[in-house]
């Protein structure tokens, strides 16, 4: 286990942890009084998809840990087709790191994994942030085949990261400008990059979304026993995991504050990185039993 | 026009402004770099119903102005039976004060009046906060006849302010304790009090709620042209003006951040005064064109 306290998003070396019969790729940097903060990434996202404006700001107050789940980036293994199995990999990684307690932030797919991990092993987590995500049994979760999304994803004019600008941001001039700035920021890292995710990663993760949409018994009941202070964040115009999923989280989690952003889609944290990190840092710095911060 | 810069909620004298053929009761105190902040009160609430923990905290950074609308407290005139007429009184009051620009916070009934005022006279307002309220055409707005509310309101064990503890807070021990603390705080003022509102005030204001529930044409369309940065706040368990009304505000106002609180009802700002005033002060201190703060 090593730690690179002075590195940032664009320079931190990728490290590899052997655990659970796998080799997990991760980056770990930052320092300060806060607990380590584990970041769980979105659909097809790798270590290289985290916005330096978000990560480096939060790394000024705590260690941040970016993690490739099994089969993503340079982590070995097969991409699981369930959130439950992704959570098992991430918990094995945390155990391998030897962390006794940490905070956790899950974005999109990563939020579902975070929710599952907190239910499976509540004692090792203190505070949780859930961004652009939804509960088990949520509705309209990552249906990329919807005409509104499919059109933008399949448009040949949207190459590489450009597709993120179209699907993480709204069509307004301000949101598109924020999307361009986001792409410039994540393009700053030039070396030691993860390979982009291919169709195998995508199809397994889509299968996990479909399984997560299902539920047995009373919908959302499992959320009501999660006491961890939680900050739920979303853009009101998220088309990938629409904002009612965030409403259901904050209504059913007994200790969750909800923050929504205007003129913002799935990538609200990247559209308003200064606001998001200001709120996130205040939330993480609180030692109250209540999520209110 | 006078201003009592050193007074606080419990000591500020009630003043009276002659305007629009009426005598409007108000209190004005506080100072700091912020714009004056006009507070618009809830159903049957008077100048004495504002929580000192909220008001005095915000008065540390700006002048605050508490206002009795027509027919409420010691303001003359008939209580209007429409939000539109309440907005006309409040605008006449602001004109009488000679304020050229200010920020505005409306709570519950007051939020509806604030929305109407901002539509009627957009140029005199800079930023708006809407707490525990709903848009025109909102649903389930202040139906005190609902069994869940009627039972608590009519319970003879709930005397005076005790009823507020039952209807503004949830049934949890933490929320009820916060409710007791709130009642202690609003009971600190002993002199120069408003008369409590009677059934005439209540019935006129209920009529205004019923009129506000109606809409013509496309629902919420009028919100989409309000560009003012807005902070929408509510408790997720508000039974008086349920939280979907806040969702509709933040989804349809083009420039609104939503903040919801856990284990909280209609009185979320009084349950979490430290958190509410921290966010409110940060929001009001921003000079961005965006509501994100």
Molecular structure report:
The structure is a homodimer of 293-residue chains. Chain A has helices at residues 52-59, 83-97, 109-120, 147-154, 162-167, 173-186, 199-213, 244-252, 268-271, 273-285; strands spanning 15-19, 22-29, 37-40, 64-67, 102-107, 125-131, 230-235, 256-261. The model of chain A has no long low-confidence stretch (mean pLDDT 96). The longest helix of chain A is centred in the first third of the chain and has 15 residues, at 83-97. The two termini of chain A are 33 Å apart. Chain A has an 8-stranded mixed beta sheet with strand order 1-2-4-3-5-6-7-8, with helices on both faces. Chain A is built from 10 helices and 8 strands. In chain A, helix 1 (52-59) links the parallel strand 3 (37-40) and strand 4 (64-67). In chain A, helix 2 packs across helix 3 (109-120). Chain A is α/β, with parallel strands linked by helices and 293 residues long. Chain A is globular. At the A-B interface, helix 8, strand 8 and helix 10 of A face helix 8, strand 8 and helix 10 of B.
Low-pLDDT windows of residues of chain A: none
Cα gyration radius of chain A (Å): 17 Å
Beta-strand residue percentage of chain A: 15-25%
Give the helix tally of chain A.
Answer: 10
Q: Any chance you could write out the topology, listing elements then pairs?
A:
The structure is a homodimer of 293-residue chains.
Chain A: E1 15-19, E2 22-29, E3 37-40, H1 52-59, E4 64-67, H2 83-97, E5 102-107, H3 109-120, E6 125-131, H4 147-154, H5 162-167, H6 173-186, H7 199-213, E7 230-235, H8 244-252, E8 256-261, H9 268-271, H10 273-285
Parallel strand pairs in A: 3-4, 3-5, 5-6, 6-7, 7-8
Antiparallel strand pairs in A: 1-2, 2-4
Helix pairs in contact in A: 1-10, 2-3
């Amino acid at each position: 286990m090593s730690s690179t306290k002075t590195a940032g998003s664009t320079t931190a070396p990728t490290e590899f942890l052997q655990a659970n019969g796998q080799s997990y790729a991760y980056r770990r940097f930052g320092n300060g009084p806060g607990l380590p903060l584990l970041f769980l990434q979105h659909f097809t996202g790798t270590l290289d998809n985290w916005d330096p404006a978000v990560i480096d700001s939060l790394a000024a107050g705590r260690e941040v840990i970016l993690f490739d789940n099994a089969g993503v980036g340079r982590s070995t293994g097969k991409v699981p087709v369930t959130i439950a199995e992704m959570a098992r990999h991430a918990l094995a990684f945390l155990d391998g790191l030897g962390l006794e307690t940490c905070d956790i932030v899950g974005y999109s797919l990563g939020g579902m994994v975070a929710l599952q991990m907190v239910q499976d092993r509540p004692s090792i987590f203190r505070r949780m942030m859930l961004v652009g995500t939804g509960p088990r049994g949520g509705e309209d979760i990552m249906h990329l085949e919807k005409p509104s999304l499919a059109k933008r994803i399949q448009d040949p004019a949207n190459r590489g990261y450009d597709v993120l600008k179209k699907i993480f941001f709204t069509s307004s001039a301000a949101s598109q400008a924020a999307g361009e700035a986001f792409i410039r920021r994540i393009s700053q890292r030039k070396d030691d990059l993860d390979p982009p995710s291919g169709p195998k990663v995508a199809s397994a993760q889509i299968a996990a979304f479909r399984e997560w949409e299902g539920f047995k018994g009373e919908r959302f009941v499992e959320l009501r026993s999660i006491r961890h202070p939680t900050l739920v964040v979303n853009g009101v115009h998220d088309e990938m995991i629409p904002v009612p999923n965030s409403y259901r989280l904050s209504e059913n989690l007994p200790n969750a504050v909800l923050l929504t952003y205007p003129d913002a889609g799935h990538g609200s944290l990247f559209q308003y990185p200064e606001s998001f990190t200001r709120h996130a840092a205040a939330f993480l710095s609180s030692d109250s039993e209540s999520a209110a911060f």
